[in-house]
Each structure stands twice: as structure tokens, then as C-alpha cells.
């Protein structure tokens, strides 16, 4: 199956981006349902964080399996994408229909995370098959779609669908399956598609022998220390801040959370556009600087007027993800080209392993001490990322 013949690169990018938007709606569907599940199953803040952590753990295992078996490079990427999306939809349906308690829900969330390893990293490889120049800009478009897909469940809840959390999950599953079909039936192989790579398990480790790849990966890991902890816990931070100041904006937190995460789509698009002139490394460095500064200032922002907190959160949401496509472009540039899929997948897997630690640490700090200080610890990630990028610059 070769899809549509004579497909233009921009049309392919649009279709891939739409499919990623649809297929990643399962990622945070459980996290968005947290307010309902907290009451239904009497969950603590730390337990609520595990609705996201379980997905991350599954994604980590999935990335190692996909990378160790070289699945994104040995098999047709569109088939890998569709199969992964179909399984993600199936496991998310299991979460919606069969979960009657907290442990069962974690199992289905974990399995969903495993399959997501064949959607996000593989989608990036498909884009790389269509473009050689300006990859940071094109991946910015893709990551903007992923960010909207992540934020989408929050929008559904904000519009009044919260009591029907199972319907939300079923809808996300349907969108995920549709996204897989888009890639399988409407996206043809790109002109820069290379022949299938030879199965080489050791390539999982060999890519890190390249110094430039290691440095950009270190920057990416610093970025990931902050990103998913912010995304998954920002609603708890906003709720604590608004209650502390007695603001009536507490009722608008679901909609504001959607806006904060969705603002990252604009950040990805603008960052990708700017990268065409200044390069991916410079955009990533600025993004880390802005989001890291907001991490460091989060304790001060916590006690400010609700409108100031909301505005800062929107800016934070825009910059916290703007560097992600730039790191992916840097990884694709500094790895062996025939193993691009494996390199992107293993880098993502290690990065998501870091998110498990940062989400758990931040949740514990917020629950045991105060949400005023919880996000300040995330600043260490951007600091590490900036340091790595400065070293990368000296290597070039």
C-alpha cells in the first residue's frame, strides 16, 4: 500500500499532523478525568499524579521495545503507526469500560502508554522522510498538533462533559483509531525514505557514542524534566494559588488548563518558524531560558493576583514545549540517518523516564509541603539543558 501517488510534502505534513493530533488524544484523557476520579475513588494528589505517571512508564517500556527491535526502521512506518494507534484505542477503551477502581485504571493507562511509543516518535520519522531542509520548522507543526491533542480532553471537560468521563475516553479512542487510518490510507512514503535498516539491537546504545548527539540529548532530558510535570500538575498549582488568594477563577481551571497546554501549539509554530533563520539550537536555548525563569519565579507568582498567575501560566505553556521540535530536529541531524527512527525513539524513552521522577517529586512537594514551592524544583531541568546546548555550540 503506497497511499496517494505524487503527494506534495506540505499535504503530507498536514495529514501527518492531523493524525498525530487525533491519535494523541488518549495521552492525557485519564489526567483530564482526574477531578472526577479523585472524588469517585477518593484519590490523593500523589495518586492522581499516577494517572499520568503510569502512561509515562508504559511509554518508556514501549520506546525501549520499539528501539531494541528497530521497529520504526525495519518495518513500514505507516504500518507501525496504524498498528500502534489501533492498540492505543483498544487499551483506552478498556480503561473506559472495565476500570472500576484505581489499580485497574493504572494497568490500562500503562498499556496505552506502551502503544503511544509507536505514534509520536514514528510520526516524527515520517515527517523526516518528506523534508531534509527546515526540519525544525516542520517538526514544530507536528508538535503543535501533538500539543493540541494533549490539551483536547481538558477542553471537553471544560465544556461540560466532566460527569461523563467514560464517554470522554471512548471519544478519545475513536479519534486515535481515526488518526491511525489517516496515516495508513492517505499518507504515501516520502521521497527521502531510505531502505529498511538491518536489525541491529546495539544501535540503541551506539547512537550515544556520538558526542553531538549526546549533548543535544542531555539538553532534551533537561527539557523533559520540566515539561510533563508542568502539563500534568499545572491544574493543581492553579487551584492551590486561586484558593490561597480567594479568587473566583477556581471554577475556570479546566478551561484555563486547556488554554495553558494549547498555548504550546503557538510556541511550537513560532519557534519552528524562527528556527529557519536562527537555527534549532538558538530557539531551544531561548525557550529553556524563559520557561526555566518561570519555574524559578513560581513561588512568587503563587501569591499574586489570579489574572497575573493565569497570564504567566499561558506564557509558560507557550515556551515549555517550544523547544521540543528543535531537539528532535537536532537529534535527527546528529544520528546515523538509517537509524533515525531508533535514535528518536530511544531518546524519547529516556526522556520520558525522567518525567516519571519529576512528576512524582513535584506531586510529593505539593502535597507534603506547598504548591507554592513545588514547581521551583523544575528549574534544574532548563538549567541543565542550557548548559548542554552551550557545549553543543562549542562543538559546531
Number of DSSP-assigned strands: 0
- Summing up helix and strand content along with how strands pair, one would put the structural category as mainly alpha
| Share of residues in helices | over 70%
**What is the class in the CATH system?**
Mainly Alpha
Under the CATH scheme, which architecture would be assigned?
Up-down Bundle
| Radius of gyration of CA atoms, rounded to a whole number | 20 Å
**Pattern of helices and strands:** HHHHHHHHHHHHHHHHHHH
- Shape, per Cα inertia axes: globular
Q: And the CATH topology?
A: Growth Hormone, Chain: A
Summarize model confidence as the mean pLDDT: 85
User: How many helical elements?
Assistant: 19
Biggest sheet architecture = none
The poorly predicted ranges are: 195-199
CATH homologous superfamily heading = MFS general substrate transporter like domains
| Distance, first to last CA | 41 Å
Total domains: 1
The fraction of residues in strands falls at: under 5%
Description:
- The chain is an all-alpha fold.
- It has a single domain (9-187, 202-395), classed as Up-down Bundle (Growth Hormone, Chain: A).
- 78% of the residues lie in helices and 0% in strands.
- It contains 19 helices and no strands.
- Helix 1 runs antiparallel to helix 8 (120-128), helix 4 (45-68) runs antiparallel to helix 17 (340-368) and helix 13 crosses helix 15.
- The longest helix is centred in the middle third of the chain and has 35 residues, at 211-245.
- It starts with 8 loop residues before the first helix and ends with a helix.
- The relative contact order is 0.16.
- Residues 195-199 have low confidence and may be disordered.
